[in-house]
Amino acid sequence: MAKSLDRDSLQRVAPKLAQLTQDVLFGDIWQRSVLTPRERSLITLATLAALGRVQQLPWHLQFAAENGLTRDELAELFTHLAFYAGWPAAVAALTCLDEENI
């Protein structure tokens, strides 16, 4: 699996996308008060896993931990997801969780 771009490599490869990510996604969307960062992390991880975007999962798993989610809660998220997004999506996400130090 190819490694996901981090902030610095994204800036180098696609400066405008890096700027939009910082300004719009994390500077606006993630800052809105209707949902907590913890809730946004749950939604983001479920969506990424359901869509098979496993390259993005490691970074978001760490971010979810920073937003207060525990390893047990993340495992439960992906277990629950198996019934809605399918077993392969859940197992792929759990594989990423197993590889992270959360």
UniProtKB/TrEMBL annotation:
It holds the Pfam family CMD. Signal peptide: none annotated. Keywords: Plasmid. One of its GO terms (molecular function) is peroxiredoxin activity. InterPro entries: 4CMD/NDH-1_regulator, AhpD-like, CMD-like. The lineage of its organism: Bacteria, Pseudomonadati, Pseudomonadota, Gammaproteobacteria, Enterobacterales. This is Carboxymuconolactone decarboxylase. It comes from the Bacteria. PANTHER family: 4-CARBOXYMUCONOLACTONE DECARBOXYLASE FAMILY PROTEIN, BLL4600 PROTEIN. Residues 15-99 form the Carboxymuconolactone decarboxylase-like domain. Gene3D superfamilies: AhpD-like (1.20.1290.10).
